[in-house]
Amino acid sequence: MDxxxxxxxxxxxxxxxxxxxxxxxxxxxxxxxxxxxxSPARRLGSVSLFEVIADPNPRLRLVDRKKTSGVFDIxxxxxxxxxxxxxxxxxxxxxxxxxxxxxxxxxxLEKFTELEVCDSAMCLSVDWNPFATSSQQELVxxxxxxxxxxxSMSRERLELDRSWEAHGFEAWTATYDAWIQGLVYTGGDDSxxxxxxxxxxxxxxxxxxAKSHEMGVCCVQSNPLWENVVATGSYDERLRLWDARMAHRxxxxxxxxxxxxxxxxxxxxxxxxxxxxxxxxxxxxxxAVDEQRDVGVGVVKxxxxxxxxxxxxxxxxxxxxxxxxxxxxxxDNALHLWKS
Length: 340
Prior knowledge:
Layout: E1 2-5, E2 10-15, E3 24-33, E4 42-53, E5 59-69, E6 71-76, E7 86-91, E8 95-102, E9 108-116, E10 123-128, E11 137-143, E12 147-154, E13 157-165, E14 171-176, E15 183-188, E16 193-197, E17 207-209, E18 217-222, E19 229-234, E20 238-243, E21 251-257, E22 264-267, E23 274-278, E24 284-289, E25 297-303, E26 310-315, E27 324-329, E28 334-339
Antiparallel strand pairs: 1-28, 2-3, 3-4, 4-5, 6-7, 7-8, 8-9, 10-11, 11-12, 12-13, 14-15, 15-16, 16-17, 18-19, 19-20, 20-21, 22-23, 23-24, 24-25, 26-27, 27-28
Pfam families: WD40 (PF00400)
InterPro entries: Diphthine_MTase, WD40/YVTN_repeat-like_dom_sf, WD40_repeat_dom_sf, WD40_rpt
Family: Belongs to the DPH7 family.
């Protein structure tokens, strides 16, 4: 439907969930500038803000762009935590940065605070606590040294609450359970999928599954519309569904090969049995999960118009354009908008 070229290697894309700003789309880039005899290696990036114009054929219009350090992940604040649209950025410089969507036409991203979460590692992922309030928010950040950090935000100020060692290698992802307050899932390059109870000591996880994934765990997504259903994606090219009714010992109910490393997963905002996957070398796939769970999962659509590694993907939150998907790929710097 539309395709634009970003100013660098594209790796993350997010539609704004706030109803009054549902036409806003953010996309992020990461570029490694190799070292030279004159200068050390640098990790540079950007966050671009687009307006999704819906008539009659949806298209993208660039309205703002911020240069920054290399970006691994971006995430808008949940819509139930305030009417203002706030975007969190996980940076390669170990800094968590916050932007506010401003302007009469939502056409400007303005940085209002930042925090060096880790001075010895990169920030790889970020997620907002879905149980937080508008006055006190909490985020979880994963790092390239395997550690996890909890950060609080109050009155537009960030504060590091605590950090702990979670994985032996890169902690690619950290996310909150959508139904169980205080439960965080993490996945790492050590092929481990873990759960952590934030109300208890973080010396050891509630569970640590080290056998199910054959390679690194890239993403974990708790289904916000379907209790006890969690999805994981791995470099081993498989999507796995988990039954989390026993939080201390979830078990995989299904796995499906998607032909490429499953870097990103997003549940559909309305249809609880559908999710979209970014499958690195194999493009993007929309997957349907049968509500009975014992029937299984299957790919219902593939999108292979990208010419490089499939990294970022998200669903539109606009009720008038729910079929819309935004996706981005790395080395060709491409951002696409398409119907599911």
